[in-house]
Design a protein that fits this description.
By secondary structure, this protein is an alpha/beta fold. 42% of the residues lie in helices and 12% in strands. The chain contains 29 helices and 19 strands. Helix 8 links the parallel strand 2 and strand 3 (237-243).
Length: 761
């Protein structure tokens, strides 16, 4: 393309956006080629091309919309009318992917997807029968307007509920696992008889950059896709790697993407030239048709470029040579599209420039309109979609008991129903509750490492695989990131996933799948999309002599810090059953993401005060019982000499310690089991503290950033800060092996000693 290079080489200014804009205009003005006879709409735009004339015209329009949105954003950002300048310039060829897929193919998009979005808008007419306007929707998003149909002004995202574009805020590759999970879910639905919200032959589209393809999260998705295909299981995901050769300022080695992915087993590789609509269209079509037809994971290596820098604040001329910039700008795909438009005879120079300028005016007019629209101005408005909660509806769902026949089939007989069994310990009642929930919710799935035939490391899921079969209870590969990616995929397709993370320490490997993806989706989609799930995690410490820090993890902070996440921890079996019922109802009714922490050391605990007393076994609760979100449990409610706030393993420890304290000081001791750790019920905590003469906060987590800090804050802010108070808490250290583990965790002796300190105050 020597002509555009010659044009670009004349411009050595600082503002490369203006230069890229001028390059297009001059390229059209100076074009001297010979035009073909104008093709009909259904004829190839150029001889030999798979793209017809009508398709080219529409793709060109989508490319121009994308480009002028970028140019508009650069101009209006300095006027504080636009708040996002990561552009799609150079990536406009992804419009071909949008054209060749369906609007019912769920799409998880790279942030350089302006062309894709403009083209996909054609797929779904508006209320007036005409296509919806991608320009106005995008302008509202750029302007952070409350009227933004994607996020309601919370973030600049490419997203649309009617177009099945699930909004992504990631700048790396954290959306790849859930994209693959959605593809797997499309096929899983058939196996469990679940009705999909999209056609059964849909595929998932997932785009990302060449730099992001190296990210660990991307690699886990590629590996799992291949692992799935190797077992002949369908996984119709189209991975679209938009290769522009650079990530912010770090160059991707030439040929690296092809070298890395071309020969991967069970990840089918296709290349397409995203810089040339006439050439690349057939290449993209082959990849899409292959993915849809074979249901195999497909890797589309789409050649792109990046003009105008990473974002508006990236002044490439400060760190790239002018010669390099000129070379890159000469490969601008809009120059090639302009050449096709003129060579095909579809446009004269004047007609093409008129289209270019009218598109510019359209984008600026939309931006000015968007700037006049209201923005978020209150905290209530900002947070509204983050954590919806409808208590009455949740309670009704949690106590719904219309699955009596299914329960009888699952448990075998009336006599074998869990409520007709003797009191049981925690592990058995969690197991019984899971049998109940899988019977109640036919769209529910339970999965994770070792949960199926083995029944989990601690046999908590024993028998579920036998009753509900491998389509609903199944093992996954050893990859927590992908387990949570699968959970999001199933949720996207209307199912209720129950993923298991084998140990709390393993959650940290995959934390961003909850923090950055699942728990943020309602917020950034203005509650249009949800990721309902109940994540079960074997947790906490006190495993005598076993495991070290990976199996005795008391770091709850990583969960409590996630906005919108519900975190619960039950210390006894009946509480576990009623909490799980409520969590599943929260997921189903309000789309909530929940974490259910299971204290490993209490799984098999039967006794409370002495061996054989059986006082830590409880009757299974009737189906009309459920635990309200935030509801604690109070032992010895009338006692007020000392109130101990705690949770998990701390509950039986506190009850045992209370006997010693009562004997030592003649005090009456109340024990408050918080049960819900996020959100903490501050009003409940404050009310319990108000009647206390002394307060102990027993937190088996670490001293820094533990649950106890939140409890003390609630007590102080509730007006009881002057009450004598002490905290018994774990040390700020990792947990060592064997008996040394108990040195870093709070014990009964420390509780009794803390009471003694309060007595001396």
């Amino acid at each position: 393309m020597s002509i555009p290079f010659a044009i670009a080489a004349r411009h050595k200014g600082f503002n490369r956006a203006e230069i890229v804009d001028q390059n297009f205009i001059e390229f059209v003005q100076l074009w001297q080629g010979e035009a073909h006879d104008v093709p009909r709409d259904d004829q190839p735009v150029l001889p030999g091309s798979a793209l017809d004339a009508r398709g080219f015209r529409e793709l060109l329009e989508s490319q121009l919309i994308s480009r002028h949105l970028d140019l508009m954003a650069r101009v209006l950002r300095v006027q504080n009318k636009v708040f996002y300048t990561i552009g799609s310039s150079g990536h406009e060829g992804n419009a071909m992917v949008a054209r060749l897929t369906r609007h019912t193919d769920p799409a998880f998009l790279h942030y350089r997807s302006g062309g894709f979005m403009a083209e996909r808008f054609r797929k779904l007419p508006g209320t007036d029968g005409k296509p919806r306007d991608p320009v106005m929707d995008s302008a509202l998003s750029f302007a952070a307007s409350k009227d933004d149909p994607a996020s309601g002004g919370r973030h600049k995202v490419w997203g649309s509920k009617p177009l099945w574009v699930l909004p992504q805020t990631s700048t790396i590759a954290s959306h790849l696992p859930k994209a693959l999970g959605t593809a797997v879910a499309i096929e899983q639905a058939r196996r469990i008889g679940h009705t999909l919200p999209i056609p059964e032959d849909s595929i998932t589209v997932c785009s990302f950059g060449d730099a992001s393809s190296n990210h660990a999260t991307a690699q886990t998705a590629f590996n799992t896709a291949a692992w799935t295909a190797y077992q002949k299981l369908p996984a119709p995901v189209l991975f679209v790697c938009e290769d522009n050769g650079i990530g912010i300022s770090v160059k991707t080695p030439t040929g690296w993407v092809a070298s890395n992915f071309q020969q991967r087993s069970n990840l089918d590789y296709f290349f397409a030239d995203g810089l040339d609509l006439a050439e690349g269209y057939a290449q993209v079509r082959r990849a899409v048709e292959h993915c849809r037809g074979t249901r195999r994971p497909t890797f589309l290596h789409l050649k792109t470029t990046r003009v105008m820098g990473h974002a508006g604040t990236d002044f490439e001329i400060e760190w790239r040579s002018i010669e390099e910039l000129v070379s890159v700008e000469s490969t601008d795909p809009l120059l090639r599209s302009a050449g096709i438009a003129l060579e095909s005879g579809l446009y004269s120079k004047d007609a093409l420039l008129n289209l270019y300028e009218s598109t510019r005016k359209r984008c600026f007019a939309a931006a000015e309109d968007a700037d006049l629209r209201p923005r978020l101005t209150s905290l209530i408005d900002v947070m509204k979609p983050l954590a919806p909660y409808t208590p009455e509806a949740v309670k009704a769902e949690a106590t719904r008991a219309d699955h009596v026949d299914k329960r009888l089939a699952v448990f075998g007989s009336e006599a074998k129903l869990p409520e007709n069994q003797p009191p049981r310990h925690l592990a058995i009642q969690i197991n019984q509750a899971l049998h109940d929930l899988l019977a109640k919710y036919p769209q529910s799935l339970l999965f994770g490492e070792d949960v199926a035939q083995k029944g989990g490391v601690y046999t908590v899921t024993k028998g579920l695989n036998k009753v509900f079969k491998g389509s609903r209870v199944f093992n996954t590969l050893l990859d927590e990131t992908m387990i949570l990616g699968l959970a999001q995929g199933y949720a996207n397709m209307g199912m209720l996933p129950l993923p298991e993370i084998q140990y709390l320490a393993y959650f940290h490997n995959a934390c961003d799948q909850i923090r950055g993806e699942a728990a943020s989706l309602q917020f950034f989609s203005n509650d249009q999309y949800r990721n309902p799930m109940v994540m079960r995690v074997a947790s906490l410490g006190y495993q005598k002599g076993f495991g070290g820090h990976f199996h005795n993890d008391n770091s709850i902070t990583a969960l409590r810090d996630i906005p919108g996440l519900v975190v619960g921890c039950s210390s006894r079996g009946d509480d576990a059953a009623t909490m799980l019922r409520t969590m599943m109802a929260l997921a189903k009714v309000d789309g909530r993401v929940c974490a259910f922490l299971e204290p490993i050391a209490l799984y098999m605990t039967k006794d409370l005060y002495e061996a054989g007393d059986g006082q830590w076994q409880f009757a299974y609760p009737a189906l009309d019982q459920a635990m309200t979100l935030g509801e604690g449990r109070v032992y010895n409610e009338s006692a007020n000499d000392l109130v101990i706030f705690t949770f998990g393993n701390g509950v039986p420890m506190a009850l045992r310690s209370a006997k010693t304290i009562e004997a030592n000081h003649c005090w009456k001791v109340r024990v408050v089991d918080l049960r819900w750790l996020a959100p903490l019920n501050n009003a409940f905590i404050a009310a319990q503290a108000k009647t206390a003469k002394r307060i102990l906060v027993l937190d088996e987590g670490r001293r820094s950033a533990g649950v106890g800090e939140g409890v003390i804050t609630a007590i102080v802010e509730g007006g009881s800060g002057a009450t004598p108070m002490h905290r018994v808490v774990g040390a700020d250290t990792f947990t060592p092996l064997a008996g040394a583990a108990l040195l870093v965790l709070p014990g009964e002796a420390e509780i009794v000693a803390a009471a003694q300190q309060l007595a001396s105050q």
